[in-house]
Amino acid sequence: MKVFDKFFTKFSYKFDKGYPDIDNPKDVLLLESLLSKVLNESFKINEIDNKKGTKEAVQHIIDTLGKKYDFVIKSDKTRIGIEGKKEEQFFLDLFQEAFPDEKLDIKIIPKNTLPNPSGMFNMYVFETEEFGKVSIVVSSKPPGGDGKGPEADFIENINNLIEENGGEATVVITSPEYTLSFDNITKAEDSSKSGAGKGDKSDAQLFSGNEVKANISIKLDGGFRWASVASLYKPFITNLFNKALKVELTDLKILPNPSAPGKYLMYDPKTDERVTKVVIPDFPKDDINKWTFGPEIPKTFIVSKPAKADYSLENGVITMKTTHIYTKLEDLEEIGIDPVFAIMQHRNTPQGLDYRIIPSKQANITAGTREISYNEIMN
Hints:
Largest sheet: 5 strands, mixed
Number of domains: 4
Mean pLDDT: 83
Strand order of the largest sheet: 1-2-5-4-3
């Protein structure tokens, strides 16, 4: 008993109740994963009946209908995935199509209901003449996230593979710059749902039990802006606005927009040419981590990913291959996306002016751009 006491004391934090609830499939999966590591062999509490027959039936379905449907091959051969969001009736029809000479009596066991081992997808149980009783867990999802944000795509893919691995896995995120590894991950979650506050920069978090192991800001490849800061630097913005309105700045004045009451347009006071962007190159960077990496612990890192990143599961390790990983300011400076304070015209903002932190490569001086010193504005 002392051995079990030590085991459950060590891993109790991983379970929501502080102990494994055998009636909770999520806890069962986690317990199986932990025991498998301790025993160094696969351990199952609720083994699927006729696992061999189920694997053969899944292969039969893929062989028979693979040219018609976009199946996703799972590492767990008792499961089958398919691209695109599908309703229950779709799978009922699919299984009947795969066994046209039999009248199948299919029972649907919902997620989180034993003996279904899945916490996310239904299991379909039916008898076949060739393979006997089979129990197939199916998964379906929109291809490439189906318009979801990059964080939703990341969270869904990671959680699907964690479940496929038995409720826990090592997560590796790799790019040409870095390879970051996180052990014993039990779920990925939207940061806004797990308590991220104002100023926090993470979009997704990796958990081991109830402990946050990684805070991740996820952005799609291509241009992006860091943040809108109109509410953060009111004394500076007030000074800039009043001085520009009174024509007290060397390279900027603002005038009311005659076609939009309450809005303003930016001009060069020396030439009266329109100005579309103002850059403050010497804006104090004391808050630079707040703009980019935020205050969270563990420190947030930034992942830049394509619309459809490469995810894989092998030997208990989930690997996400992505375009770039940024962990510090120097990483951003190297490719010109370190943060710079700028003011731009934007008709949908209260003054018609948008105060933003933008990547430095977007702050290039063009015909419509002016630089103004922070000290000129604040002195």
